[in-house]
Amino acid sequence: MRVYEVYQDCLMHSLLFDECEKLKTLDLSSFDTRNVQNMKYMFWGDTNLETINFSSFNTKNVTDMSYMFTSCWNLKNLDLSGFDTRNVQIFDMMFYGCVNLTATITISSTNVNSYSGIFGNRAATGGGSRITLHYTSTTSDLVDQMITEKSSKSNVVKGILIEG
Question: Which pTM does this prediction carry?
């Protein structure tokens, strides 16, 4: 039995891969997340994690992505283009300490009520790293506010307007 079969009907994946310090690569392309509401701390403290395949991740029902990648220092590239964030309410410290990360995510939720420290502790300060936030017409101001949470040398930028 694979780990994703054990958890496929869970509403929470919080702490699932928390502090797996020896983990370097993770293929979650077959992970069934259609019912998941909480991804808080999912990869927190995975300090040696370099790559994650999210190609079929369904985040449509997720309301909490806080601390999701906190202290994933070695993550270099994350393809979050398939992440549906329209129901996310909490982004606290999502990329905190992701020094070497390059990622793009679209912020589409108008119900965000917390994003404290989302880009804290030198997120995207490593050579060539960059976190880009795409936005919708209703989340443009929110994205501007989120970017103010970045560390002073963090390369966190506003991306493009996504319609629909």
Answer: 0.89
